[in-house]
Amino acid sequence: MEYEKMLTKGTLLAIMNNEEIKDPIMQVLGVRKITAAGANERYRLLISDGQNLNSFAMLATQLNSMILSGELTEFAIVKIKRHIISNLTDRSKGSKQVMILIDLVVMVPGNVVSSKIGDPKPIVDNSGHMVANGTSAPAVATPKPQSNSVKMPTVQSSVINNGLQSVIDVDNIHPINSLSPYQNKWTIRARVVCKTPIRTWSNQRGDGKLFSMDLVDESSEIRATAFNNECDKFFDMIEVNKVYFITRGAIKTANKKFTNLDNDYELTFSSETQIFPCHDFDDSQMPAMKFNFTQLSQVKDMDVDSIVDIIGVCQNAGDVTNLVSKTTRKELQKRDVTLVDQSLSSVTATLWGTQATDFDGSLQPVIAIKGSRIREFMGSKSLSLLGSTIMQINPDIEEAHRLRGWYDSLPSNVEFNSISTRSDGGINTKFLTIKGAQLAQLGSGDKADYYNMYSHLIFVKSESALYKACPKPDCQKKVIDRNDGTYRCEKCNDETENFKYRLMLQAQLSDSTGNQWVTMFQEAAETLLGTTSTELGRLMEEAKEEYCDVFQKQMFKLFDARARAKMETYNNETRLKVSIVNMKPIDYKIANEKLIADIKRLSGIST
């Protein structure tokens, strides 16, 4: 039969005997839904290689959609690209081997095959017991979990004799890429490539602390996190670049918002977790940190909050600056550095804490950063280092050596395209009319849109331009006047006898194509009016006419306005909100250059 030739006969028995078989092709003879209290839906498959069958094959839950969509059905022929063999213990039936299918591809749909191929028989072990019925003879040794991608090297006998055998099954080492939430007992041998400082948190549910570390072996990498008791237990004993045996713990789906490690899962240590140093082992067999570098020119097209690895030469470094966190109220140190690479692009990366204070960019070192987050501000992208980010200075890797040689041979007049510098109205800035921005539906997408426009200021709501705000330097919340000489800030949950004035202008701009209501906040409003909110507050209280004159002086003047457009929802109503980031008098030299360039472009004249 045509389909019978596709099946890799005999491979099912070999797999259940822990032999490594690459991409076996089998037939699904049955699908059964299994439900358990408090658990996700699971599907149990009856699979056949044409010679043997196994009724204890479980589909990984991330593949459930293949059944729900009708892609994976009875009689389908599938290629199993990744699997593991795990032992499950049932008090009434004893131990049984389960083949967990983690990745597979349907080669021929079930409705096309429409029948069972061959006459497959249940697998029988040496003692005459059917492996497929879920029981195993007492004399049968416990099988080793295997991955069909990596075979782990043998541990030296001196390690086994050190007394670890009673705690950790060192003969049963799992490669990292075989770990999944469907395993209860596992042991890995891995190198710790980084360890974060202990971090604390405090919320309504209580206080806590944690630290994370990234582990790597010959097969893959994975992040592990220890909370509270486990944090105290393991933090001091773990050393970066050392190799450890690690056994037991929870395996769960990784949160890709906080990591870009090449693994769908992550570890959480539990009270059952045991960690032992791996002595008498040639750790040169164990790889070091793995990077997945992204060129700087690609950062501008990636989603905000994406986690990326980058490498670049530090072209320059700014000074350390201090600021106060809006959430924790703690003082922070930051330093911005500019990185460049062979794509002739540059990006700003923000270092925090000790990484910022200890950094020396005077010799323009090569910097490799693992796990930086992409940020966006006013239309430009930058990178920010996280608590889990790893930064290496002049790492001994091929990419760093190649980058160093390239940068040292550059001519002095080379120019880089900065993706972290917002435009201030130069020739390449996107200029639109008010009507043009509306026709382009700017602000209707998931992200804010930025553009420039030449427009007249024709009206400002001066009577509501100022509001009383919390006097704390890191708070801008409007306070409630209690009419007893005190003011209450709901955000700070505090009362004070003082306040500060802040600006929020509602204004109308106009050009030859239409009008647009816009909002201007503190910095942009002070720049436009040429005074401070504090001085305006004094004038409003003491000299009302002079206060109004400040606004009237700017009326009907022509400005170069930098606008931000974004759809926002308030009180269940969604509307377009246009705010002005910067508003300044027109530089007619730049404006004329832009007009000349536009005329040449529209007329087809080469510039």
From TrEMBL:
InterPro entries: Euk_RPA1_DBD_C, NA-bd_OB-fold, Rep_factor-A_C, Rep_factor-A_N, REPA_OB_2, Rfa1, RFA1B/D_OB_1st. Residues 296-394 form the Replication protein A OB domain. It holds the Pfam family DUF223. It comes from the Eukaryota. SUPFAM superfamilies: Nucleic acid-binding proteins. Its main location: nucleus. Keywords: DNA replication, DNA-binding, Metal-binding, Nucleus, Zinc, Zinc-finger. GO terms for molecular function: DNA binding; zinc ion binding. Residues 7-107 form the Replication factor-A protein 1 N-terminal domain. Residues 173-277 form the Replication protein A 70 kDa DNA-binding subunit B/D first OB fold domain. GO terms for cellular component: nucleus. The keyword Metal-binding applies. It is found in: Nucleus. The keyword Cell cycle does not apply. Gene3D superfamilies: Nucleic acid-binding proteins. GO terms for biological process: DNA recombination; DNA repair; DNA replication. Residues 450-594 form the Replication factor A C-terminal domain. Component of the heterotrimeric canonical replication protein A complex (RPA). PANTHER family: OS03G0429900 PROTEIN (PTHR47165:SF4). Belongs to the replication factor A protein 1 family. As part of the heterotrimeric replication protein A complex (RPA/RP-A), binds and stabilizes single-stranded DNA intermediates, that form during DNA replication or upon DNA stress. It prevents their reannealing and in parallel, recruits and activates different proteins and complexes involved in DNA metabolism. Thereby, it plays an essential role both in DNA replication and the cellular response to DNA damage. This is Replication protein A subunit. It comes from Cinara cedri.
